[in-house]
Amino acid sequence: MKIDERSLTESVVAQPIDDKNKTRGKLKSIALLKPKSLVYFSVVTLLLVIFVVLGIAVGSVSIAPERVVRVLLAQILPNGWIETASVSEAQQVIVLLIRTPRVIIAALVGASLALAGAQMQGLFKNPLASPDIIGTSAGGALGAVLAFALGLSARSLFYLPVFAFVGAFVALFTVYFIATRRGRTPIATLLLAGIALGALIGAATSFLITSTSVRFEVAQEILFWLLGGLDNRTWAHVWIALPCVALGSSVSLFYTRELDLLLAGEEIALSLGVEVERTKRILLTVTALLTGAAVAVSGVVGFVGLIVPHIVRQFLGPGHRTLLPASALTGAAFLVAADLLARTLIRPEEIRLGIITAVFGAPFFLYLLLRHRREVGY
Q: Which domains occur in the chain, in start order?
């Protein structure tokens, strides 16, 4: 029997709140089972797997992809199922302790930034909102740089995510409150507030770098970190980012219906039982958590939250039930591929990851800005 999704959606709108909550899971499964969605998820998942294997196989010491897959499967499947005797111990160390953590972090950072960007674009109802454009990434960077400057990052890796989260949280809420008037957030005000706050945060970050209390070695470490990169990342960094990304993703996916209704306007969302202000606070906190976690383990990696959700929206539409998970998956594949380019374009040297994403992201942002020039006032 063919399901009429439009009729089903209209019936959900007309239902009481308790009945709507019961049908949430049914609607979500229908959206994900659409043929177009299945094709998209299948293709992107395949690309992610390919990029992950290549990201682990390619490097200063090349390892055959077949051996990479064998070593990884030997860690996942029960002992003895996969034979690894033909893989040298040195290659196993490279795969498991050096490259696999880096690739996993790239996937986590890409997923979290893309998810944060998709969420912010739905919340602000414009395609130009993203963590780096409106200053959230810069706020997280300032918090992390403060941890470097105070010497706290040398004591424990866990100071970085805490300070980065607080910085991202404060920056995001500051821009939101500056730009929002009478429940509306004009895109021009949002961009200008983000640019102004980003400049102020950049000045504070520069002051910390040039401060006499910061040693040259620390200043150099901060500078390289601000350019974004995943060199020397270990499993400790994975365990720092993973809980934050998992928690943020879970909360985001729970609020897909609210984001869909907010696209229609706050008045309509209120009439359908959405607690608008509470929803905004929760989603902004989740965005700060995702951005802070990403900045803490990768430095400042721009434009992922701008590019990925917009591209996914062109294929799957604006419905957040598919947009959010698809953005996370696409962001993971995109950043794993970008990190692979950063490591291989000019070997043996490595390009900073933030430079690679800016090369793709800056022209894309200009394209979006010109396309929406009426909305920004010129």
A: 65-72+94-371 (1.10.3470.10)
